[in-house]
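Quick entry between incubations.
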Amino acid sequence: MDVTWGRAAAVLEDNWLGSSTVPSRSLYPHQWSWDSAFIAIGLRHLSPSRARRELLTLFSAQWRDGRVPHILFNPDTPPEAYFPGPDFWRARRTSGLIQPPVHARAVLAVHEAEPDHTFLATLYPKLRAWHEYLRTHRDAGGRGLAAIVHPWESGMDNSPAWDEPLARVTPSAGFVRRDLQHGAAADRPSDDDYGRYVRLAADYRDSGYQDFGDFVVEDPGFNAILADAELALAEIAVELGLPAAAATHREAAARVEKAMQEALWDNGFFFARDVRTGERTRAHTCAGLLPLLLPDLAVAPALLATATGPRFRLGRVHGVPSHDLTAADFDAGRYWRGPSWANVGWLVRQGLQRHGEHALAARLGDDLVETASRTEFAEYVDPLTGAGHGARSFGWTAALTLDLLA
Ligand code: 9WN
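Done. Structure below.
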């Protein structure tokens, strides 16, 4: 057995709680939404039944309005282990925010590893309700794009794309950051950003998790993942013998793709759009590369040129930098402001394959495996040196390494 395979499998074993997997035993001791999707994609190679359990546990916490919460709290974890914990959210056992909808893709992948009609039939209506929530409750701009109401919802918390909309938010004070007990301050978001995250989350909570507040943004990463998820849902519908439903999912994907093209594309790249001002934010971040996931993306050649050009240097650096390498505020070690993350690398690799860029996809895949193995499955890495940062034994880094090796 490959040594890396065994070590990655051991990480998932250690992080397994019995019905779900924690991203990290120290820094993130609960179940996170998009982490679980990526983890299931790796776990299916070890145990399809555990992968199914991972996703079923997450969807057991789906809200009545269809949203899949971004954190499902583990009742056995001490409340002081993570902030903001269940007391903050006042939503029983979950947060009230969401994360990118990678789940349909994960459900399909788990089914492909070991076909299970009951699993598909159980999750299909839940996935539909989740996408329906995004399409209706989250269409703040009225353009057919899902808006996020908090940087945590992008999964890319302190991305430079959020600097402008976040500047409007007055930071909260009087809370204790638990993350700094486990992570180096220089690798984590700043105190000011954290204060703004807490303010936005409290305002949203106090509105009953309904109102659009100061931060309302259309993110190309989130929406590309949504369009790809609709394509996955179409494949699931075909498996379930529902061809008419499959056609509606493909149409939904096409609508999101068209809206992204019209509202977010500019000069060779996809940018986030601030719904409050109507302006596109100017940062080139890795989220703008994720529309490569869409196989019929008309602007793929121009986007690939940006990906391989000086801003991201795909194939010539480690992974996919989270921020523009040429930007003055690129920071190689700080979270989503420069470092490369395995999940983004894995998604971009899929996109490269879908656009026929097989050599570049293979090079990226090999680098992701080598870097993950060398850094003890680090949460993120310096794209220039490959040095690990953040947590080690990180769930999706281990899981996606397994998927790349399988
Ligand atoms: C807030 C769990 C999560 C990931 C996110 C990553 C980080 C949380 C945090 O960890 O966010 O949700 O406490 O910083 O940014 O992508 O899902 O691994």
